[in-house]
Amino acid sequence: MIKHFARLRLLTLLGGLLLASACTASPETPAPFTEGDQYVTLPAPHERLSPAGKVEVVEVFSYGCVHCAHFAPTAEELRKSLPKGVEFKLLPAPFNDAWMPFARAYYAARQLGVVDRTHLSLFKAKFEDHYPINTLDELADFYARQGVDRAKFLQIANSDAATAQMKKDFDLLQKWQIDGTPTIVVDGKYRSAHVKTLDELVKLTRWLVDRELAGK
Fold first, then answer.
1. Which end of the chain is more exposed for a tag (fewer CB within 10 A), N or C?
2. Is residue 168 within 8 Å of 160, Cβ to Cβ?
3. Which is nearest to 191 in space by CA: 201, 30, 77?
4. Element (H or E) spanning 206, and its range?
5. Order of strands, edge to edge, in the sheet holding 55-61?
6. Residue 185, φ and ψ in degrees, nearest 5
7. By three-state DSSP, how is residue 151 classified?
8. Of 98, 60, 69, which is closest to residue 181 (Cα–Cα)?
């Protein structure tokens, strides 16, 4: 009777080992996003917006883009929820003559320290309240309504420094192979591609951030 019990116990242990082996040998959970579809890995050497620092999440956008306007509140929530060691940044895209004033406006607003309180308001004024905000003068009117010195805004927006920054940023956008907005770039290494919804863009961003943090 004792021998039978011992043999039964041995078979049970062996069965457990086989089960454990089967679990170990099972394939890994597939990645939720596909390289070459929802995102691409950019060619090396990878170039960030800032040369060093925290893991970098960059939203390439334009105040002239209605899709960016729809994404802006969600992007703000994303920015606030990113883990420590991750920094969210904005990069304006001067893809055409109509969007250049918006890029200049962003550089001026950043230098004046008013982006945080005007970013969402500008999208709302243009796309919800339907203010005529297209030219640099009309943008200056908007910022003046937000308490910004209009003359100082225009001086910065029209400066040689703003022009040089726009050219530098455009070179980076070309390196990142960006042709639309909103687009997310993580650490100068990964770029969002064919996402179907803004919610999917957020989930992709979080997944790429976790991947980059794990790699560091």
1. N
2. no
3. 201
4. helix 198-215
5. 39-41, 190-192, 183-186, 55-61, 86-92
6. -125, 130
7. helix
8. 60
Find out whether 63 and 123 touch, Cβ atoms under 8 Å.
yes
CA 82 to chain centre: 11
Q: What is the pLDDT along the chain (216 residues), one digit of tens a residue?
A: 333 323 333 333 334 433 333 333 334 567 899 999 999 999 999 999 998 889 999 999 999 999 999 999 999 999 999 999 999 999 999 999 999 999 999 999 999 999 999 999 999 999 999 999 999 999 999 999 999 999 999 999 999 999 999 999 999 999 999 999 999 999 999 999 999 999 999 999 999 999 999 986
Which residue type is seen at 136? Answer: L
What does the alpha-carbon distance between residue 24 and residue 27 come to, in Å, rounded to a whole number?
Answer: 8
Residue 58 confidence (pLDDT): 98
CB 63 within 8 A of CB 107: no
**Rounded CA separation 153/145 (Å):** 12
Structure tokens at 216: 């560091």
Bond preceding residue 45 cis, omega within 30 of 0: yes
Evaluate whether 82 touches 209 at the Cβ level (below 8 Å).
Answer: yes
∠ CA 100-69-159, nearest 5°, is: 25
Give kind and range of the element (H or E) at residue 125.
none
